[in-house]
Amino acid sequence: GSDLIEWIDGHENGYIHPDARIGLDPSGRYRGVFVKTVEEGGSAGGIKEGDLIAKIPWDLIVKPENYSQNRYFSCEAHFEMYRQFLLGDESPHAPYINYLKNQPRGRLINEWTPAGKRLLGDILNHAHLFDEDDGNGLPPKSFVKDYEEIWVKKCGGEDDELARAAFYQLTSRDEDTLMVPFYDMHNHSNDLKKLNTITTKPLRRKKPFLMHSIKDIAPGEQILISYNRCHAGWADKTYEDCVSYSFYGTSELFNVFGFVED
């Protein structure tokens, strides 16, 4: 991830906090974004409340031409993502695109085999999901973000393996219609004791994507974001003025992003 940080910092309007690093957690079990320890070249104080963690210039964001802050789906965004995947090393976003192209597949339900989907349906008791009796069957009721339904039929896109990879990278990592490098490498938490950042989507085209700390983050600590901070049950008034589509509940997080929060 250091090359990606260098790419963003190298832009005249880009910034990543010098104490942030992309990599494995201290146990080596999972990847994320962390505050550098002193031994890793970080400062003793870590990141302070209110610090700017990231400023991602508009030029470095993969986005549709017709951007609106309150637009939450766009076939144009999918086509742009596919176009960047086709460009590969020639893409102006090459450090980011090549990182995405090397990500493992199969994390999302819709990438599972038919047998895997049937097994999940059995576990969730989907055969009785639409019974009149309350309590039969568990969400998610349907496995959304379907490649064939959205990309091929709705958007009219080409059906090939590169298109499929681009589609699932966008649907599982996007901030509505934006693909934001560095930001999408953070892990999720809704634990108010752990969640330590707030983000600001561009109000309009040409504006940057911003990410600030909302509390002190100590050296070695993970920098976390919330994937569903606009949920109606959200308790933190910091997020009162949400402008993201991120109102998902637990079942939607599993469906769209491929995990259940512990």
Q: How does this structure look, described?
A:
The chain is of the alpha+beta class and 262 residues long. Helix content is 26%, strand content 11%. The chain has seven helices and eight strands, in the order αββββαααααββββα. The protein has a four-stranded antiparallel beta sheet with strand order 1-4-7-6. A two-stranded antiparallel ribbon has the order 2-3. A two-stranded parallel sheet has the order 5-8. A hairpin with a 6-residue loop joins β2 and β3. The radius of gyration is 19 Å and the shape is globular. Residues 231-235 have low confidence and may be disordered.
Question: Descriptors for this entry?
Answer:
single chain; 262 residues; alpha+beta; two-stranded antiparallel sheet; 8 strands; 26% helix; globular
